[in-house]
RNA sequence: CGAGGUGUAGCGCAGUUGGUAGCGCGCCUGUUUUGGGAACAGGAUGUCGCAGGUUCAAGUCCUGUCACCUCGACCA
């Protein structure tokens, strides 16, 4: 009726225009706002609270795997940036430069960090001397700047917030192990906390990080079938160590270069979370990351005892979940829509009728399902219900992912799948850059990764027909 | 960076042949309301994106410029 009409007016239907729907959710849920700086967003309180929960969770996982946090400068002298050739070539087009301090022109211009490999390397060269100094397991939580041509809130912004881990190891094996360990940390975080199923794999040479020997990735599928690279972990070999002269004396008193890694995850995952779970009523937050997990909406709150009872519920529940109460003078219906828009996983309605019956009405954000719960054991039923919601969001996303991965063994089949079926296509590849580029030119799909779980779908490359080396997941990507 | 679109109140928009700046929602005050975006009464809010130009007069016409959106290109 008029309510539905209004909601449709404020949020474009997801099936009608996915991009507009995404923008509408970000704006209506008050996750972020546009700023007066091109391509830079203001992360509003809800978006910030979600990011803080991501940070808390990830930081705990980093600490559990032995890492410590540091803070590096935001500027990189031009000379330092240029020490590693592939790296600087990769980032040069999107670097912002500081040329003046006050009115004075700088002797050497400073780049606003697009990533901090060079700063960490410069520092590691100073502090690593002996095998006893290894490994170095550093991480930092900062923002970086990349002068992107097209920006979208969370998905690609000029400045974005992230963490970047940078480690130095005595052996290649140890560094490779670290690379995989952190990729698994990302995968676990995405699956357990954001309820986003991922595919783990390796990037092709074309898609790997500038300066990396190998790049590993966790790829997620959005609701429209497009891929979003959600976290990456890089093995650098000793390339940076040689460029920056990071050497240590081993147990035999021989000089050795260190072996390095880096890994990062950014505010982009908030975009992933939106595009995986949210719907036409707005944001849907997985309970594990939701700043408010339960919103209590009192009904007829002016009536004797209603607010008291609602506050009593809140006090009891706050021991076990993140709960809030909306006692503003809005109409209940308005509050329902508002908290749905903002993604609160569970709403509890309590009014005179419920109080009389010693019950509350619980409404799930993900399914809209209403259940009546006894007030007596809410501290057990509510956390359990939140776990159910978390699991069910994951299951639904996992089902969409597996339903929309197709296999192709013939070129015609491949191009048709890419063109007509939103999702990923698995196909064999010879390993040549030429084929990868041809596939991109002709289908606009890129190689997302060489999944760790390989299968021999056929013996020949989907593109050129030469003997196949790898199974690749192809898809259109953000 | 290319093509297209949009800039007028917090948000969404209208504004005719150039002639006093408008509407809806929201906001503020009060009263009544409250189980899916309440009703009534009263009230506040504008460098019309910005800079030039034409004109007695510009939101409206001209030139330039900036920003944002969509689709491409580019991109770890």
Characterization of the model:
- The chain is of the alpha+beta class and 478 residues long.
- It has 3 domains: 276 residues, BirA Bifunctional Protein, domain 2 (2-Layer Sandwich); 95 residues, Anticodon-binding domain (Rossmann fold, 3-Layer(aba) Sandwich); 71 residues, C-terminal domain of ProRS (Translation Initiation Factor IF3).
- The two termini are 35 Å apart.
- The longest helix is centred in the last third of the chain and has 26 residues.
- It is globular, with a radius of gyration of 25 Å.
- Strands 3-7-8-14-11-10-9-22-23-21-20 form an 11-stranded mixed sheet, with helices on both faces.
- It contains 15 helices and 23 strands.
- The chain binds one RNA strand of 76 nucleotides through α1, α2, β11, α11 and α12.
